[in-house]
Every structure is written in C-alpha cells, then in structure tokens.
Amino acid sequence: MSPDDRLAAQFAFLNEADRLKSVLRATTLCDGSRAENSGEHSWHLALYALTLADQAEPGVDINRVIRMLLLHDLVEIDVGDVPIHSMGGTAHASTATQEAESRAADRIFGLLPPDLARDFRALWDEFEAAQTPDARFAKSLDRVQPVMANLQSGGGTWITYNVTLDQLDTRVGEKISRGAPRLWDWVRAQARHFFA
C-alpha cells in the first residue's frame, strides 16, 4: 500500500466514524435535555477511564481501555443503539444483534489499512468478549456511565423501560462488578435511593 493509499484509507475510516455522532442512544445527557449520541458516549467513556483508573484491577492498562472505549460502539453506525433494558433486556445479547455487529465491525474496520484494521478489530473483539482485565474494566465503565446519566436525569431510561433494582443488578451490576467491584458497590448504593 502506497503512503497516499494508506492516508486515503485512514481518512475513509475517520470520515465513516463521524457518522457515529448521528446515532442517538436511549440514554439522555445527565441534564435530561436530549438523547446522547454514540460519539458523545464513547468520548465520555474515555474520560471515565482516565478519571476512574484507580478503580481498575492491578495491571489494567488504561491506555488500552481507552482505545477499546473509543472503538467499541463504531458498529452502531450500521446496527444502531440497542438499549440493554429494551425488550426485557434480551435484545442486547441476541445472536442476531451479535452477528449484525460482527458484520458491521468487518465493514468499518475493513476501511483501514490492514495493520490498523487487524489491531482495531482485535481490540473490538477483546472488548466484546470481556475476558481480559482490560476488557472487563472497559465493559464495566460502559455499564456505569448510563447508570450515572439515569441517576442525574431523574430516572431516564429506567422509567421508559420500567426497570427495577433487581433488573439493574442482573443486567448491569454483574458486568460492572466483574471489572470494578468497588465502583459497583458505590453506584448501586446511589441507585438504591432512586428505587426506594
């Protein structure tokens, strides 16, 4: 690949990634004024990783976590946001959704030069599998941020989807506690007041 072709591929990817700013999420901004977009969500999660790095297990590489968080929702360009509490909480993990997201990852990361495509796709796959300490922490933050937005906005999507504290524990708490147990303890205590 020539240097010019490489730059063209890198900018094709970056221009495509700009579309993430047009994908609206179910979660609102903390002030409840409007739906957050997926680009804002990814940026906010990167900031969460920087700010809450002390909540990660020893050995977690925050720079890798930030890279995962910046890439993790690019598939929403093709698939859209699938709220964790929609359709009884089952839509998010459905096989059809996972397959659609995998196809989107192939397409979007395939715009890049092969070395970057391979590296970015590997980070995305690692995040999705949530088996490494880095990915578990990244996944924890991905679950914490909407909880905090719902708390700040007076309930947000919890009201929309009639979420109970038990549902929050099983759909969100288990993921958070796998990668950031102290963080979940604190966040759950805040959420418990909302559901009281």
TrEMBL record:
<keyword id="KW-0378">Hydrolase</keyword>
<protein>
    <submittedName>
        <fullName>HD domain-containing protein</fullName>
    </submittedName>
</protein>
<dbReference type="InterPro" id="IPR006674">
    <property type="entry name" value="HD_domain"/>
</dbReference>
<keyword id="KW-0479">Metal-binding</keyword>
<feature type="domain" description="HD">
    <location>
        <begin position="17"/>
        <end position="184"/>
    </location>
</feature>
<dbReference type="Pfam" id="PF13023">
    <property type="entry name" value="HD_3"/>
</dbReference>
<dbReference type="InterPro" id="IPR039356">
    <property type="entry name" value="YfbR/HDDC2"/>
</dbReference>
